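Supplementary Methods S3. Complex input for the flavin mononucleotide-bound model.
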Amino acid sequence: MSDRTSTHKTVFPKPGNFLYPVPAVMVSCADGEGKPNIITVAWAGTVCSDPPMVSISVRKSRYSYDLIRKSGVFVINLTTKKLTRAADYCGVRSGRDVDKFAECRLHAVAAEKVGAPLIEESPVNIECRVKQVIELGTHDMFLAEVVCVQVDSAYIDESGKFHMEDTHLTAYSHGKYYELGKMLGSFGYSVRKKPVKKTSKRGGQTKNKKVKKTR
Ligand SMILES: Cc1cc2nc3c(=O)[nH]c(=O)nc-3n(C[C@H](O)[C@H](O)[C@H](O)COP(=O)(O)O)c2cc1C
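Predicted complex, serialized as structure tokens:
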């Protein structure tokens, strides 16, 4: 450990959640009769690449908690600039009292693989099946496998490439919502050689080493 102390740091009185930015996703779920609901969740994350797995942490007191626990399924819908107001609303009103789909003028449509609906207006819908529920304290963590992903066809070009960058995704940081900004680089750019048309001493072109994308 370093002996160097910093004069620029202030220790927060209580350690808390400072891992930001995070996505504030809109999680859709349904009750036994198929009545849909949406809960906004910021404590969500990717936890495994293969099998593809995610987690969401939900308080037992939420109306959605029992819906997800009983059905064993949910859909993560990514939040965009256009959906931010609805995402906030779904995070401050309960499905016990209001129909959030109707209030936010959103459409619940059938998912491909799970019994929970997805939000049509969201460009990315991640269908999840719960594998494990871990009681952590204030929140229970639902560990779930991603069984299907649907994306809005409007963002797929002629070559079949999906343009996530055009969907205007938002992030949540320390109580505030932000639209994603300028792209700063892409995976591995720090070690990638610039595509210069320079010839080597032997007369050949300098080659770019490929950086393997594993997460
Ligand atoms: C930005 C934001 C993030 C939130 N993140 C979570 C979360 O990660 N887990 C949770 O249990 N509640 C979270 N909430 C609170 C719930 O979304 C809120 O209590 C909601 O009204 C619950 O809806 P329900 O009763 O219909 O399930 C969040 C709220 C907001 C506004």
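Residues 24, 37, 39-43, 57-59, 62-64, 88, 91-96, 139, 172 surround flavin mononucleotide (CB under 6 Å). The CA atoms of residues 127 and 148 lie 5 Å apart.
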